[in-house]
Amino acid sequence: MWLTLWSLVMTIALPHLQAMHMIDPQSTLDCHRRLYSYTVAQRDSQGRTCRDTINVMSCWGRCDSNEISDWRFPYKRSYHPVCLHDSRELTTTILRNCDPDVEPGTERYQ
């Protein structure tokens, strides 16, 4: 049973993992999605903390940019494309690792 479950997980996850490893950061000029992990902590008024690791989807990449001189002001033509998010979503998560007797609401991280 575990072998079957492991095989299923690898069948689903492996193509995604391989695709990420096939991206050459030195040559790609595209924006790519990536899951970043952060360790966050929040303190209450007594100094007790709640902490956890959260995951945030963001983008990374580099862009081919240039400037060409021009005789007219501002004396250059610039082309600097950047990676942009499609949207932003404000979310709240509950931090799971709290000190004993932490004040209510400290576990809510936004």
Automatic annotation (TrEMBL):
It comes from the Eukaryota. GO terms for cellular component: cytoplasm; extracellular space. It comes from Graphocephala atropunctata. CDD domains: GHB_like (cd00069). Residues 1-19 form the signal peptide. One of its GO terms (molecular function) is hormone activity. SUPFAM superfamilies: Cystine-knot cytokines. This is Glycoprotein hormone subunit beta domain-containing protein. InterPro entries: Cystine-knot_cytokine, Gonadotropin_bsu. Keywords: Signal. One of its GO terms (biological process) is G protein-coupled receptor signaling pathway. PANTHER family: GLYCOPROTEIN HORMONE BETA 5, ISOFORM A, GLYCOPROTEIN HORMONE BETA CHAIN.
